[in-house]
Write a structure and sequence with these properties.
By secondary structure, the protein is mainly α. The protein has ten helices and no strands. It has helices at about 5-15, 25-40, 50-55, 70-85, 90-100, 115-125, 130-145, 160-165, 170-175, 190-215. The structure holds adenosine-5'-diphosphate and nickel (II) ion. Nickel (II) ion binds near residues 29, 33, 58 and 59. This is HD domain-containing protein.
């Protein structure tokens, strides 16, 4: 199969896999991450097939929606790619991305590195911040029936992985527990630059949110 055919087949597979996905982790999230991956990759030395397939397949079975099981996504992706007959090198690069892209709570330590992971992780993180990141956070909070904000519940800045997974705190807390930390964790120069503006937008948003909550504006 030519590369374009591999990509087209993967797009069709992912669209089908995600047809019932929650709105923050649906095909449109994947499409944005894919576009950002291509943008960031322009200035990086990466295998574009691995990076694109990693972007397309990174959320096909998010553990959040599979009782915390983190093995389903990589396994599904591997089975799919084997049937497309891509090389073993491409498969292991893609699986490396899927297994290591996510961060839970304050846990940023890396047990695996690749230039393709660095790019796709930045692309995924960009979609978690800025205006779209805000929309996704509140959408997810609604999906999970969380409070929007509760002045009596402080953000927990030092959660371990298990606590993060079980966390049921109000959505505003998630900004402090994750979203505002992402700017400082970008891997690439392009990612860092794009994160700046999106980060600033979240800060302005939060200022306005508290001003309205107090009744100041
Ligand atoms: P990743 O998929 O990169 O591991 P997450 O699953 O933590 O990251 O988050 C994916 C999306 O879901 C992000 O937009 C994030 O803001 C949102 N999200 C995850 N957990 C929460 C939460 N507790 N409250 C609000 N939004 C959340
Ligand atoms: Ni994602």
């Amino acid at each position: 199969m030519r590369e374009e055919e591999i990509i087209a087949a993967t797009v069709a597979f992912v669209k089908d896999e995600l047809k019932h996905a929650e709105g923050g982790h649906d095909w449109w999230h994947i499409e944005r991450v894919w576009k950002n991956t291509l943008l960031i990759a322009k200035d990086e030395n990466v295998n574009l097939l691995i990076a694109q397939l990693g972007a397309l397949l990174h959320d096909i079975a998010d553990s959040k929606f599979h009782n915390g099981d983190e093995t389903i996504g990589p396994l599904k992706a591997r089975t799919f790619l084997e049937q497309l007959q891509v090389t073993a090198e491409v498969i292991s690069g893609v699986i490396g991305i899927i297994e290591h892209i996510s961060f839970k709570g304050g846990h940023f330590e890396r047990s695996y590195e690749s230039p393709e992971l660095a790019v796709v992780q930045d692309a995924d993180r960009l979609d978690a911040i800025g205006a779209i990141g805000i929309a996704r956070a509140f959408h997810y909070g609604g999906f999970k029936d969380r409070e929007i904000y509760n002045p009596g519940i402080a953000p927990d800045l030092h959660m371990d992985r298990e606590t993060y997974k079980k966390n049921t705190a109000p959505t505003i807390n998630h900004f402090y527990e994750k979203l505002l930390l992402l700017k400082g964790r970008m891997n690439t120069d392009t990612g860092k630059k794009l994160a700046e503006a999106r980060h600033r937008f979240m800060e302005i948003y939060l200022e306005q949110f508290y001003a309205e909550w107090r009744g100041d504006v």
